[in-house]
Amino acid sequence: MEHNIYMYKIVIHLSKPDKEEKTTKLIWVKESDGIFSVKSAYDSIVETDLEFDESNFNLVWKVWAPSNASALGWRVFLDRIQTKMNLVRRNIPISSCACPWCGIAEETTSHLLFVCPFAWCVWSLILRWLGIFFVLPGESMDHFKQFVNCWSLATKSGLATIWLATVWHLWHGRNAVIFREENLESVGIFEAVKLKSWSWIKACNKNCPHSLSEWFNEPLACLGDM
């Protein structure tokens, strides 16, 4: 479906053939010479996609995290991770489309990482750890944007790192449940997120003076010093 939408956005920039011309040809109206280019096609998609938020994409690549974590966040924004429903859309046979966490709803990106009661519990623990209480949206970009702006004194890079670490452990935890039949609890993922985010920040930000104990107890205070 998403690929069809992008193709439509490209096709609308093709001009209709002139009825007076004897031969039919397509002209790419986004270029002065009428010749198609990948760059202008990409720019056209971005211009017409109301849900595209360049700031989110830029920030997810500037966080204190390894590139494979940023790549995962980028694919989550684009709904390109291999959830069961995304595999079904590619005509890949799946025995069950049920979410591995709750076993009830279909496994979409939004449900698996943000809406499922299991994921919601993990995010609630994260917010409680940060000392912040509000309801997060169910769509990836809105969820990310609200999360990284939840406290003005903390750096967005630090909060984005925590967000990525949470998405990272929910996704890889999901894989552990499906492929290794592990039994995971929300508290265990929460504790793993705290450790993972601290290790990423310490590795990527040499100006971080805080210990693991300080990070566990006062994460926002630590972020405020960076």
List the helices and strands and how they pair.
Blueprint: H1 2-11, E1 14-15, E2 27-28, H2 38-48, H3 54-60, H4 67-77, H5 84-89, H6 109-115, H7 117-130, H8 140-148, H9 156-180, H10 186-204, H11 212-217, H12 219-224
Antiparallel strand pairs: 1-2
Written description of the protein model:
With 226 residues, this protein is mostly helical. The protein has 2 domains: 2-48, no CATH class; 54-224, no CATH class. It has 12 helices and 2 strands, in the order αββααααααααααα. It has helices at residues 2-11, 38-48, 54-60, 67-77, 84-89, 109-115, 117-130, 140-148, 156-180, 186-204, 212-217, 219-224, and strands at 14-15, 27-28. Strands 1-2 form a two-stranded antiparallel ribbon. The longest helix is centred in the last third of the chain and has 25 residues, at 156-180. The protein is globular. The two termini are 42 Å apart. Residues 1-19 have low confidence and may be disordered.
Features:
226 residues, mainly alpha, 2 domains, two-stranded antiparallel ribbon, 12 helices, 2% strand, globular, disordered N terminus
Short description:
It contains 12 helices and 2 strands; from the N terminus they run H-E-E-H-H-H-H-H-H-H-H-H-H-H.
**Strand order within the widest sheet?**
1-2
Alpha-beta classification: mainly alpha
Rg over alpha carbons? 21 Å
Q: Helicity level, as a percent range?
A: 55-70%
Termini separation comes to 42 Å
> Largest sheet, described in full?
2 strands, antiparallel
Q: What's the overall average pLDDT, rounded?
A: 83
Q: What's the order of the H and E elements?
A: HEEHHHHHHHHHHH
Shape annotation: globular
Runs in which pLDDT lies below 50 for 5 or more consecutive residues are: 1-19
The overall strand count is: 2
Q: In total, how many domains does the architecture comprise?
A: 2
Residue share in β-strands: under 5%
- State the helix count: 12
